[in-house]
Amino acid sequence: MLQNLKTKAKLSILSFIALLAILILGILGTVQLKQVNNGLVRVYNDRVLPLEQLKIVADEYAVNIVDTTHQTRNGNFNFDKCVSNIDEAQTKIKLNLEKYLSTELTKDEKVLVDSLKSFVIKGDEVTNKIKQSCKNKDIDSITKITIEELYPNIDPISGKVSELIKLQLDVAKNETDIAAEIYSSSKTTIILTIVISFVVLTLLSYSIISDIIKKLDKVKTELLNFFSFLNKEKNDVTLLDINSKDEFGEMAIVINENIVKTKKLIEEDVALIEDAKVVMSRVNNGWYGQFIEKSTSNASLEEFKNNVNKMIDNTKNRFVHVNEVLTSYSKNNFVPALKMEANDERGGVFETLVNGLNTLQQTLTQMLVENKTNGLTLDKSSNVLLSNVDKLNLSSNEAAASLEETAAALEEVTSNVRNNTQNIAQMAKLSSEVTASASQGEKLANETTVAMDEINNQVNLINEAIGVIDNIAFQTNILSLNAAVEAATAGEAGKGFAVVAGEVRNLASRSAEAAREIKTIVENATSKANQGKSIATNMIEGYKELNQNISQTISLISDIQNASKEQLLGIEQINDAVTQLDRQTQQNAMIASQTHDVALITDEISKLIVSDADSKEFVGKHDVKAKNMNMGTNNKQIHEVEKKIVTPTKKDTKVVSSKSNDNEWESF
Length: 668
Hints:
Layout: H1 7-73, H2 79-101, H3 107-136, H4 139-230, H5 247-284, H6 299-330, H7 349-364, H8 367-490, H9 495-614, H10 631-634, H11 661-667
């Protein structure tokens, strides 16, 4: 499926998956941390604080009220002090009990609270009786209430408070277990998400980069093979095998089309040249009966073949004509004469032959008449030469047009490679965006570490509260010891007070034990929070490693970009070579123009010859006419082709001249 996607789409998918993985990790971490934090808040608000509140209620009943009663009974407190202490105790009991009841209560806790309320009502009734007796300063009433009503109504309150404290510890333990389960599940989920994201991103990155590198290597290899074929280092060339719908597939189609076209053209040219070598070898040996039969799609080379065949045929006909004239001269008939054909080059072998035979014929007749005749004939021939030079100009322009088409095709290939280079630059940009996303993930992991530190701070506050409870239990134990001493001092009358002191000491011991259990639970929570912080630290290290891997990916993309630029440089060198051929064709056109100037000079010379003959007097001077060359009879009609204006579009390159005409032809 990835093979048929555009390169831009592949990179977009890679970036989307990376961002999605970071988003999932952030959401999971935030949700799980919120759940852990809520559990700790519930433990502190609904379990730790209620422990302190219940402890105060129990102490006020069991210590303050009972102790005040005994101190007043023993005469250690006056009645006003008794009333003041009882009022203070009732205020604290009411305040802390209301705070406790305002917290979130469990079902079992509500049952115990309802039972506690009934005992509190009875305890308040006894307390009010003691307070009223103190107001009345009735020591006997106080003694009676202490012996008969105080402990039966106060002790059940301490028992229910102890049950509630135990229930608080059980609920706190459940909350801690829930927090541990959340931590364990969060740890597993986050680690699994990181592993899956890493594996998916690694496989996808490897797949995309391998696909790009593989296709670039194919393009590079086949282009080098094609260049070797063009330089005649190899006899064959293969096509690009990239069957995809991305930019590389589109580029491969264009390159293959041009390879097939160029290969066919070169093979046709080579076959024609080999055929021409055989024919020219026989012509050099005097055989004019064989012509070049091979054909090519190269218009210039095809025209060259036709001109060579025409030359062979014309040369053969001229030799036949010369033989006929010489045969006529051998029979003393000097009237026949050789004539220059329309396409004969001046100064060539044929002109020497024609002039030699015609000079022989003219010497036997009349030199001046022949001079005038030649002058008139030369005048006509110069016009024909001008016409042929125009046709040569047309042929040169056609060759330039063919080269222009080749340059346009190479320009299209260059454009595709340049677009590919730009796409690779876009890849580098998208990889930089993936690096930024990974940095954002590292930032979120750092924030997770900070959150874990805040949780540790909250746990430390809980530890401080537990320390306060432990101190209160210690002080209560001291008070119970003091009460025992007082009871021992009081003798028989202090036995009941000694029992109360023992109960208070037991309650203080249970409170201290409960504080130690809570401290152990909080220490476990602190350990779990530290483990969470360690995991967050590992996440940070993982993101740093991910950043390093992405940096390596960017480096690979940079290497690909440099390779693409080198390919672009190679294709531009091909363009330069085609431009050089185009300039050589333009030079041929310029030479044809110079030949046109030579034809004009030849025309002037022919007019000078006629003028020189007219300046002399001789018999038959005014009867002399120009020879009728019949140039339109034996020549083939050449169709005119609209001249194409060739405008070079490539940068100028240095033209290197070949050492010989043969080398020049081989280079072409």
